[in-house]
């Protein structure tokens, strides 16, 4: 009986133990609230890195290009000169001798180079950049750009950093009261021509250099004087017309003058257009026969003049694009030697006078050469070859600072002429009525 009771008690205890729930696990600590970063501080989602080719990944970053330096004055010998030839401007600049420089100008974002068949020139100190007049007239400024060459080689030439300078330009846009100053027979003077050409001050519209600006073309320094006068008067800001005289062809550097002066396809005679002014620059060459002993068999101007006659005829044949072109109000002849008088080359010069008088019908002819101040009207005693119009001989050269040039003001009906002596004293004046 006792065994039976003990067995029942064991069964009861075992059953009661299985029905008790398991003790509860200790509560988990409360979760900490997440700390939110401000939106701008949260890192952006990272994109997977792009895979680059090994060669590109190894290429070092290019350094930033240096800003162009301002063109220093010690590179240019004078300010540039803007010559008018045809319907173009030839912007010419003179750098220091023996300084190899490649050069171009920028006008309204376009480059115009001093180049020979794609090769930038650096062998001479003179540089010529030809720009359409319409482009520069519209832009009213140009930027002179250059690299100084440290070594020019067949491969990997070495240059200094780009240097540049911008010049303002004032084209001739008005049609009345046009102010022109003519310098002739300076014969290497620089100070006096620059001083008297300030007669119109900032109102000067056109500078005419009418021959014998140089005494001779003997030395390189002679050629520089052309730039000293033209650049000193205009600072590269207004147009210039240059006609060669009879002293420039003399000397060992005469054959180099073509690289230092404006030309039309290699020729020193040409037409030009500046606003409403149309003109023709003629070149008589020397003032004595080619065989004269003074030249020692170095001159061939007779054939040169015959070629010039044919050019004058071609200009007349193309009148509608020359002196009869739209907008032309004034017609000028610019020539150093007044070929209206004298027996030397009389047949040629009489033909020039006839062609001009009967076809071009110029308003005015501007000359130098005789070192005197004189207005020659048609039929005067100086008119021996049939002058095409009134001729102004407007240069006088004395000793020292005795030097005179000519101020011309064009109106619709006439030209006011004043002879200006250094330092800006009016020596004489005249009014030429247009026919």
Written overview of the protein:
It is a single chain. By secondary structure, the protein is an alpha/beta fold. It folds into two domains: 78 residues, no CATH class; 261 residues, Purple Acid Phosphatase, chain A, domain 2. The strands form three sheets. It has a 15-stranded mixed sheet that branches. Strands 1, 4, 5, 9, 10 and 11 form a six-stranded mixed sheet that branches. α6 runs parallel beside α7. The protein starts with a helix and ends with a strand. The relative contact order is 0.10. The N terminus is likely disordered.
Top keywords for this entry?
about 425 residues; alpha/beta; Purple Acid Phosphatase, chain A, domain 2; six-stranded mixed beta sheet; 23 strands; globular
Quick rundown:
This protein is of the alpha/beta class. It has helices at 2-18, 54-58, 133-139, 191-196, 220-234, 301-317, 346-360, and strands at 69-70, 81-85, 88-94, 101-107, 110-113, 115-116, 119-120, 126-132, 141-151, 158-159, 163-168, 178-183, 206-210, 239-243, 270-274, 277-282, 330-335, 364-367, 372-376, 391-397, 403-410, 414-421, 425-433.
Corresponding CATH architecture of the largest domain: 4-Layer Sandwich
Nearest-integer average pLDDT: 88
- N-C termini distance: 167 Å
Total discrete domains:
2
Unreliable spans are: 1-49
The share of residues in helices is 10-25%
The share of residues in extended strands comes to: 25-35%
CATH level 1 name of the largest domain:
Alpha Beta
What is the quaternary state of this protein?
single chain
C-alpha Rg, in Å? Answer: 41 Å
Indicate the structural class. Answer: alpha/beta
Report the CATH topology name of the largest domain.
Answer: Purple Acid Phosphatase, chain A, domain 2
Instruction: List SSEs in N-to-C order.
Output: HHEEEEEEEEHEEEEHEHEEEHEHEEEEEE
Q: What's the total helix number?
A: 7
The major sheet is characterized as: 15 strands, mixed
Overall 3D form: globular
Number of strand segments: 23
Give me the CATH superfamily of the largest domain. Metallo-dependent phosphatases
């Amino acid at each position: 009986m006792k065994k039976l009771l003990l067995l029942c008690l064991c069964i009861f205890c075992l059953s009661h133990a299985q029905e008790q729930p398991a003790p509860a696990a200790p509560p988990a600590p409360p979760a900490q609230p997440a700390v939110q970063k401000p939106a701008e501080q949260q890192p952006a989602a990272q994109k997977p890195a792009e895979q680059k080719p090994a060669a590109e990944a190894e290429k070092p970053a290019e350094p930033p290009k240096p800003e162009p330096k301002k063109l220093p004055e010690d590179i240019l010998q004078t300010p540039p000169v803007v010559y008018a030839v045809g319907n173009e401007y030839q912007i010419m600049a003179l750098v220091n001798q023996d300084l190899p420089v490649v050069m171009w100008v920028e006008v309204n974002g376009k480059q115009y180079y001093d180049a020979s068949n794609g090769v930038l020139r650096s062998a001479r100190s003179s540089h010529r950049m030809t720009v359409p007049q319409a482009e520069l007239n519209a832009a009213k400024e140009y930027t002179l750009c250059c690299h100084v060459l440290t070594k020019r080689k067949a491969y990997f030439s070495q240059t200094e950093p780009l240097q540049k300078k911008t010049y303002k330009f004032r084209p001739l846009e008005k049609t009345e009261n046009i102010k022109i100053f003519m310098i002739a027979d300076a014969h290497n003077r620089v100070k006096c021509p620059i001083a008297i050409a300030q007669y119109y001050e900032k109102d000067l519209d056109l500078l005419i250099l009418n021959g014998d600006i140089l005494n001779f073309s003997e030395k390189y320094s002679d050629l520089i004087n052309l730039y000293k006068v033209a650049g000193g008067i205009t600072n590269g800001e207004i147009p210039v017309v240059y006609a060669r005289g009879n002293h420039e062809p003399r000397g060992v550097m005469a054959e180099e003058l073509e690289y230092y002066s404006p030309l039309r396809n290699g020729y020193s005679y040409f037409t030009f257009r500046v606003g409403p002014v149309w003109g023709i620059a003629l070149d008589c060459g020397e003032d004595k026969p080619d065989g004269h002993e003074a030249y020692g068999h170095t001159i061939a101007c007779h054939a040169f003049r015959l070629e010039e006659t044919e050019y004058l005829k071609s200009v007349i044949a193309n009148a509608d694009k020359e002196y009869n072109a739209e907008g032309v109000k004034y017609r000028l002849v610019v020539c150093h030697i007044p070929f209206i008088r004298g027996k030397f080359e009389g047949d040629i010069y009489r033909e020039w006078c006839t062609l001009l008088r009967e076809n071009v019908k110029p308003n005015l002819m501007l000359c130098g050469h005789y070192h005197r101040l004189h207005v020659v009207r048609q039929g005067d005693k100086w008119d021996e070859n049939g002058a095409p119009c009134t001729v102004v001989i407007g240069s006088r050269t004395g000793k020292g600072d005795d030097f005179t040039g000519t101020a011309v003001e064009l109106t619709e009906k006439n030209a006011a002429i004043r002879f200006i002596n250094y330092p800006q004293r009016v020596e004489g004046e005249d009014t030429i009525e247009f026919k």
